[in-house]
Structure formats: C-alpha cells, structure tokens
Amino acid sequence: MLADLKNSDPATGHSHPRVVQAIEDQARKFLHICGSDYYYEPMVALAEKLGRLAPGSGAKKVFFTNSGTETIEAAIKLARYHTKRQHIIAFHGAFHGRTLGSLSLTASRASHRAHFGPLIPGVHHVPYPFYRRSPGNQTPESGARESIQAIETLFRHEVPPDEFAAVFVEPIQGEGGYIVPPAEYLPMLQDLCRKHGILLVVDEIQSGFGRTGKMFASEHWALEPDIVCAAKGIASGMPLGAMIARAEISTWPSSSHGSTFGGNPVACAAALATLDLLEEGLVENAAKMGALLKERLTALRSRHKTMADVRGLGLMVGVEFCRPDDGHAPDRQLRERVMQKCFEKGLLLLGCGESTLRFCPPLIVSAEEVETAVRLFDEAIPEATGA
Ligand SMILES: Cc1ncc(COP(=O)(O)O)c(C=O)c1O
After folding, report:
1. Whose CA is closest to atom 7 on ligand 1?
2. 209 phi-psi bin (left φ>0, alpha ψ -120 to 50, beta other)
3. CB distance 264 to ligand 1 below 6 Å
C-alpha cells in the first residue's frame, strides 16, 4: 500500500509506539472499572485535559462514551434536559450517527433512514450553506443568508424559537461532502442561538483532534459552543467518545445518564497519549501537509476539467467531480471510477456527498506521501475517464 488517505484510520497512524505503550501500561494495571460508578486516574486526567482543549472559555464537564453516535445521544438528552425544550435543528447533508436519536438528526442520505421510522419527533432540517464553484450558482454569502433565513422561517411559521433546545451542526460537513461553510456562517448561527437561548452543539466527531489543522475545527471561527461532541480521532482507534459541555448547562443529576464502558481506562490512556502527540506537533503537521495537499490538488484542476472543486481545511480535503459539458452536474459515476483506479494503485480514498472524494490521511503524513498520493490521483483521473 502506497498511501492510505481514507477516513477510518487512526490519526496517529497504525499502532503508534507511544499509544501502544500507553495501552500496555494501562492494561497491566486494570482493564475496566465502570466510570459511571467510580472515578479512576486516566478518566479524570483526560476529562481535565479535554476541558482545557475544547473550544470556549469557562469550566466544562465531560461525559465519556464508546463512539460518536453515543456522544450525540448524550448531547440530545442533555440539551433537552437542560432547556426543558423538545425541538432540535439539524442540517440537510448532516451525518451524526445511526442510533435512533442521532439518526433522527442525520440527513445525508435517505437510505440511512429508510424503514427505521418513526424517528424521534421534533427534529427540523434546514439547508447547510453550500455553494458550487460553477457558473450561475449562488455565492457563499447568499448560501449563508439562505440557511439562516430557513431557520427564521421555521421560527415564524412552524415552531417558535423558545421551543428549540439545540442546533446540531458539523463545523465542516463530513459525510455530506466535505463542505466548509462560508466564513460568516457559523458566527451568525451562534448569534442566532444565543439570541433565543438555544444551545449550539458542534459535532466535531470527524473534524476534531487536529484533523483541520487546529485541535478543533470550531477554532477557525472562534466559536464558543455549549456542547462539543468528539470521538473518532480521540484515542487512535480505541473505542471512545466524549461530550464536552459548559459546566453551567450540565445541570442533570448523575442518575440521568450513564454508560458501563464509556471512558474505559485503556481507551482513556490511549487518548492521553494521542493528545500528547497531537500537541507535540501533529496538529501543526496537519495544517502544513493539508496546505500542501490542497495546493497540489488545486493545481491539477487546470488539467482535469472534471475536478469541479477542491475544498477543505487541514487534512480534511475533498475533490468534487462534475460533468463540465452538462451544466457542471455532479458526476457520481466518475467519482466511483476514480476511487477504484486509485485503490488499484494503492491509494485509499473514500467518497462523500454527491460526487466528492475525500482525502483524510493520518496526521503523521509526510510531504513525500502527499506528493505520491497526488501523483497517483493525477494518473487515475484520465484512466477513469478513458481520456
Ligand atoms: C460528523 C460525525 N458524527 C457522528 C458520527 C458517528 O460516529 P460513530 O460511527 O463513531 O458512531 C460520524 C461517523 O462517521 C461522523 O462523521
């Protein structure tokens, strides 16, 4: 395998020796104590660290889970519990998980939801501000405005704002197509939430832990979310998730929520080692290598007219394919063929959105590996188009 640029692998690469050592050391001490019943050192240390690192000032409280979807479930419950409101806003294109609560917020593909209804009531989907860089399409600013207007229309005609508990948003839509919102959008959304006492919940499950060149993507817009949902990259592949909430809103008693394995000591030890590695240079590397990757991919656009867009932040970079001779319509088949050609060459990529391929390598990726990946991708496109 030449390069592994898909999204399900550990941010620190496979079996980083420091992470493996931390797991071994913890495994020799004890494998499990239920964190909902008793505290233990790695869990407390990790909670303190996450409280410091997560976006937003002020004290935070952390609830540990085993996965992304469980983290979203916890956030739905806390938002409803704290506000005593039922309704929730989520976005078209969103992916928040596949258990029934999180699936109710997920709206990236109808097939994810098909035959599982009724899902939880009170969830309203609005457009995520997306624009295509092709002729005749909306501008980033108009995309942001339209999304905010859709929420205001909802408030005016369907449900008053004081019945909304939370807005759940991915700072960069992942499964939805690696969509970076226009610069002004997330601060506007935060202001709207504050105005109506609605909690802002950011799903950083895909974008967190250095992926976008900052510890959390929310930092790109100086957001101060009420709840941050984290998982995936947190523990280098060990099953762990964390809901990090402002202390003032964590008003529920300990009996309101719990988990037998969430925050397992071995997973917490792996997370502490992972965070050290991120702080010691991997976040910085993600920013640098991400810029290189985006620059190199953008340069390919002049040769491959089917590359409609190259977008992303840090090492969360997407390339969208279109039919240039058909009004720039998304070209899903071409995306699939390019992905297959890349796979045959040893470059692992995954699709997202309608016709986007995502580049999402481990944060240890080197400049040489980036150059190799871009070369293979460049070769794969004409092979896939038959040009
Ligand atoms: C943004 C986002 N939220 C939530 C999830 C669900 O995470 P998990 O698969 O760990 O349940 C995912 C998984 O892809 C995700 O990308």
Report:
1. 68
2. left
3. no
